[in-house]
Amino acid sequence: MKLSYKNSSNNQLLSRAVLVLNANYAPMMVCTAKRAICLEILDKVDILANYEEKVNSPSVTLSLPSVIKIRDFVRYDNLSVDLNRKNILSRDEHICQYCGDKNSPLTIDHILPKGRGGQDLWENLVTACKPCNQKKGNKTPEEASMPLKRKPKRPNRLHYFYKYINDKQEEWKPYLFMEPFKIN
Prior knowledge:
Blueprint: H1 8-13, E1 17-21, E2 27-32, H2 33-41, E3 45-56, E4 61-70, H3 85-91, E5 106-110, E6 125-129, H4 130-136, H5 157-162
Parallel strand pairs: 1-4
Antiparallel strand pairs: 1-2, 3-4, 5-6
């Protein structure tokens, strides 16, 4: 089935974010509406909520999925987040954790420097602008008189799902433990 685009706004419809739940309703990931529709056509998912918009193929009109549930349970550690540069920047919202600068290129800084036994752990890594990273050098924030804006901690996957939530994703909130389910 080939889905058609009637105008440039429809180009964005198939890229819309869809919340993917495991068979036990645990949040797993976010995929595109196009991928969700493919999974629906392959009979691999149940659609739990739709956006208001619809997409068309030459032979069928489909509601745009918003929340889908995989039919067969998948073993998946859905709360852990990989420790990498991209995820540290995301956790720290692309802000220097020493001065609060949002506009400078950012580096990753070890709170307890590696040369002094600091490890690559969520709780020991923060984003820092280059001037702050150089100023801090091989010192701890206390030694450099550079207090952190926020104490770093290990995020879980729910933290990243929350970033997708806007007025179009109201149906996601109960599945992400942001509000109770509405019983009709």
